[in-house]
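Design a sequence for this backbone.
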């Protein structure tokens, strides 16, 4: 799903409104739009993710998932009974489990910012982080030496 037409519409509407306030306001609006585009894109991705979650609750046991392909959102729809079919080429071949995670607000904010810097949704960022951590070889256990007083 290409978000560019939606961002272009927002840009045109703001430019039209700013034009009525004069050249200075129009120039300021242009600068604001350029600065706010990443935040606007992230907000739209959150909207799509929340909408997919609501649709999934109504569609259960089917699901609608949002994932990023580059910087653009894509959707994966699983209908009841699709579990018996081979996975679509764009889907992760592993079955998906839904988890509710409660984070302290400052930690959630930092995680969202880290995900946004990578052009990713928070969910995709957390999945990638978990996979990376869990797929690393486990370090060898440390050898613990102890000495007992009085023994030589």
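Sequence:
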């Amino acid at each position: 799903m290409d978000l560019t037409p939606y961002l272009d519409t927002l840009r045109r509407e703001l430019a039209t409104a700013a034009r009525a306030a004069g050249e200075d306001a129009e120039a300021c609006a242009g600068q604001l739009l350029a600065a706010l585009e990443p935040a606007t894109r992230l907000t739209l991705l959150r909207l799509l993710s929340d909408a997919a979650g609501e649709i999934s609750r109504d569609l259960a046991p089917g699901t609608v998932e949002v994932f990023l392909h580059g910087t653009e959102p894509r959707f994966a729809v699983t209908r009841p009974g699709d579990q018996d079919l081979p996975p679509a080429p764009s889907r992760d071949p592993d079955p998906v489990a839904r988890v509710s995670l409660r984070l302290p607000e400052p930690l959630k904010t930092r995680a969202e910012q880290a995900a946004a810097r990578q052009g990713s949704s928070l969910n995709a960022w957390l999945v990638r982080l978990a996979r990376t951590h869990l797929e690393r070889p486990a370090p060898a256990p440390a050898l613990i030496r102890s000495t007992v007083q009085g023994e030589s």
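The radius of gyration is 23 Å.
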